[in-house]
Specification:
Largest sheet of chain B: 5 strands, parallel
Structural class of chain B: alpha/beta
Strand order of the largest sheet of chain A: 7-6-5-8-11
Number of strands of chain B: 8
Distance between the termini of chain B: 18 Å
Radius of gyration of chain B: 17 Å
Largest sheet of chain A: 5 strands, parallel
Low-confidence stretches of chain A: none
Structural class of chain A: alpha/beta
Order of helices and strands of chain B: EHEHEEHEEEE
Oligomer: heterodimer
Number of strands of chain A: 11
Number of helices of chain A: 10
Strand order of the largest sheet of chain B: 3-2-4-5-6
Strand content of chain A: 15-25%
Order of helices and strands of chain A: HEHEHEHEHEHEEHEEEHEHH
Shape of chain A: globular
Shape of chain B: globular
Amino acid sequence: MKETAWTRKDLLGIAEISREEIDLILDTAESFREVAERPIKKVPTLRGKTVINLFFEASTRTRSSFEIAEKRLSADSLNFSSSTSSLVKGESLIDTALTLQAMAPDLIVIRHGHPGVPHLLARRLSAGVINAGDGAHEHPTQALLDAFTIREHKGKIEGLRVAIVGDIEHSRVVRSNVHLLSKLGAEVVVGGPRTMMPVGIEAMDLEVFHSLEEAVEGADVVMILRVQLERQGRPLFPSVREYFTLFGLTSARLAGAKDDAIIMHPGPMNRGVEIASEVADGPYSVILDQVANGVAVRMAVLYLLSGVRESE
Amino acid sequence: MGENQTVRRFLDARQVQRVIRRMAVEIVEHNQGVDALVLVGIRTRGVCLAEALREEIEAAEGVEIPLGVLDITLYRDDLSTIAPQPVVKSTKLPGPVDDQLIVLCDDVLYTGRTVRAALDALVDYGRPRAVQLAVLVDRGHRELPIQADIVGRQLETEREDRVDVAFPETDDGRSEALHWVSTEEV
């Protein structure tokens, strides 16, 4: 049996990668997890490689996670954020990217508010491009670390029932997770207020619920999404308290889920809005494991992509 | 295998067993006992050797010997030249390495680069009291100043030759050592 090898220059989304490639990333991440437990948390694998973190949207969590992953691989890591970059001075996206390319980075990690931006860069640049979130489209490394966490606690993904609840419409995490979990044989359902459910979601072949209790019924995994308190200056619901009363994840609301259901959240949490503290800090919450696993998964992705040479 | 190669089995199952038994005795004698001894096998077949050595030493000395597994993929010196990335498996050491006597185990010693990578990996875990090297076959052609302390069998080979060791756990139940000799085209 031929072992899967990673041959893609870029990681832009989960939609286009195969189940075998997903397993390869998760298995590789398993080996990288151990690096965080050593006295010297470093391996020389990406020594001399340059990785640029190009974050057009604020993100402490994802960016730090990538930064730590890069440094633990001994890579040279550079951070570019939109507020301090040349973009403020009016430079176009392509020009920014070509300027960076002239500095010969090996990999570029990019987060942008517009979907498709990583894909544009991937086509124009010879460096490998990793999508760290493009608009509400995809966030592949988040879905991968979520899958890794589920596998860690449940032993497998096939046959599990996963409920994703909250602000489905504005979440990029949903799409990547739905793609990934479906490819790996899990059953995915979504739940949330109608104002946060995208039009046409039924076409994604998902069960859609408008009450939390119904959505989490029989779930092995409950993934709760962060609620944006307002978007573009317009509130999405009457008050925070009303949201929590109707849609907040409390222990009572979780009664219908399986007894050993795990609770996940991509972070950062709004306590008392989408999630009650008792749940966030409870014994079934694996939220902090997700963060630790994020570093291992990103190390795996960086390692695999760095091995892809441009064909001569 | 190329068509211009003939294979010779230079160790059969019985001989492999005897050689390992003798290596185990040597390890204990060389170190005047098994105090702080840790066997660390280099993935993948070095682990098989380490396990076989452990069995022999435990039987002879009546003491449990800790065993570790080392994956050196992340420390290879050729990662920028080979593509795609080799599969990396995990490293598991039985405890801190500080002040321990580590005996690294590998099936074949050739250029020495694998052992160099293993030493770099070990040093990232702490400061062993000493590191020794036990190999089943030493086939020469070193590219780095590396030597084995305990050698099962010394074998003269040409660079183009190939040496394979088979262990039951990794090679369909076989236990033997094979030397593929390149023959000149007539």
